[in-house]
Amino acid sequence: MTLRCLFAVLALVGATFAGSQVTELKVDVVSVPEGCTVKSKHGDMLTMHYTGTLDDGHKFDSSYDRDQPFTFQIGVGQVIKGWDQGLLDMCVGEKRKLTIPSSLGYGERGAGNVIPPHATLHFEVELINIGDSPPTTNVFKEIDADADNMISREELSDYLKKQMIPADGAEMSEDIKQMLENHDKLVEEIFQHEDKDKNGFISHAEFSGPKHDEL
User: Where is the signal peptide (predicted)?
Assistant: First the structure.
């Protein structure tokens, strides 16, 4: 397993939390390949390489470090709003710099100790591929270890830990170590967002990450 599904789940935390410090999304086009005939639009599956930093230059995540691009469906809330808005009309091979206000990122809550409250996010992004079909990965099923169609805190915690620990025994980055240290807080933040009826479980209907319509 890779971290792809992990960050798809973590993106849920930032999908609805809003701050008020900076209000405008800034998109700087770094380079565009010649002969671009197809551009990204709502509903497309985008495969991206990216590096994310804070105002002070601290790098909080990078797909380049994992040598694993990130795939998601744009415009459906799988990622923060700054990505849903800032990656439209983009060509394969195009590179951009995004400056995302906290209102379009992780808002007043932040994300554990990785992204602080009210943080402005800076991303260097490169579009690798545009697809037209959603991913086949059923993240809900992968988290729901006992197959009872309900995700408990324990199941989510175990899943996140498995995604963070390198399968090949490679050394963990400092960012991942920090996320492991604070993963209990991440679990609680995800539950605050996903557990709509506050019954202590996330149902298939409540879960807004990648899932299949059928159970």
Answer: 1-18
